Amino acid sequence: MTAIQIYDTTLRDGMQGEGMSLSAEEKVRVAHLLDDLGIPFIEAGFPASNPKEEELFERLAGERFSADVCAFGMTRRRDVRAEEDPALRLLASSFAPVCTLVGKTWSLHLEKVVRVDPEENLRMIADSVAFLVGEGKRVVYDAEHFFDAWRTDRDYALRCVRAAYEAGAGNVTLCDTNGASLPHEIAEAVRAVAATGIPVGIHCHNDAECGVANSLAAVAEGAVLVQGTLNGYGERCGNANLTSIVPNLQLKQGHDCLPALEGLTEASHLLAELLNLTPDPNAPYVGKNAFAHKGGMHVAGVAADPATFEHIDPAAVGNAREVLVSELSGKGTLIGHTGGSLAPEAAARVVERVKELEHRGFQFEAADGSFDLLIRRETGEYQPLFRLEAW
Q1: 49, 201, 375, 379: which has the fewest C-beta neighbours closer than 10 Å?
Q2: Rounded distance, CA 204 to CA 173, Å?
Q3: Alpha-carbon Rg of the chain, whole angstroms?
Q4: Is the C-alpha dihedral spanning 108, 114, 117, 118 positive or negative?
Q5: What is the pLDDT of residues 143-170, one digit of tens each?
């Protein structure tokens, strides 16, 4: 299958989410975390948009990575030559071998935000890309709000991405910046752009809960680079979630994305902890409950053959199976929970006791110690460790 390049923008786009904040030192740690996963492109952010970013790039310059660190910026200002634009000159002087430029595509932005003539916008795109390519940088061009532009004026949207490509951009990333598009809309536009021979990338936001689906649809139509963030962190509803996209592409469709995925769960949880967030237990692939089985019928099926209720081997992404004990459990669940040491008759008694207690409001799913004591009491193996003298 096709090799798909993974481009992580957790350190920039991911940090735009509410409550997201990492020190420069912590960002360096995250960069190494991403590098250890084998992600080839790590976007670090604006080299000097604020003191923290300035310190970050100084620190990153002294580190060693297998990945290419990417510096992010914008096309030149209107009425300013690219080689005289301070922001572009800063990118050119950065140690980062890859520069990612974002530029306008949608007429609404040209009219209401930057107030730039459409032809001048095309020159801004081409001049900026050509300048950085001339400075020895590999350029990834992000066509902001591409799909909104596609719905408004397809010809002009194509002219924008063609201007970047003809000026030397290695990839042109089509951005669903406000997350408004649905998979069939993404597929149609990507198919048309890929047919021109332009190497297409895709970057989707998750405002319509379609970030992952839209990214997969784009790859199916010819996108060869996928941008997103670990755990889907980002502004508003977040970015396309790489912890779901990569396993879907690699394990389900056979695309070559990363060297191995066994470290994915650990990386996902570590990033959440660095951000003082609780890892999402229900996250696909990497969540604690991603392979948790509660119903007795499901547990029995997994015991017979894991493929009956697990769509992949949990170990493939560094996760593990969980068997939850509740009023839905059967004897098989308890016998499996105890490693086969519980006799069927005792298991039946424990099941009935669990049902009785959960009916009264008790819960044993996350109380392994309490459940172990219950088993001991029902099997006569309980030895009290304390004797109550007074209360």
Answers
A1: 49
A2: 10
A3: 26
A4: negative
A5: 999 999 999 999 999 999 999 999 999 9
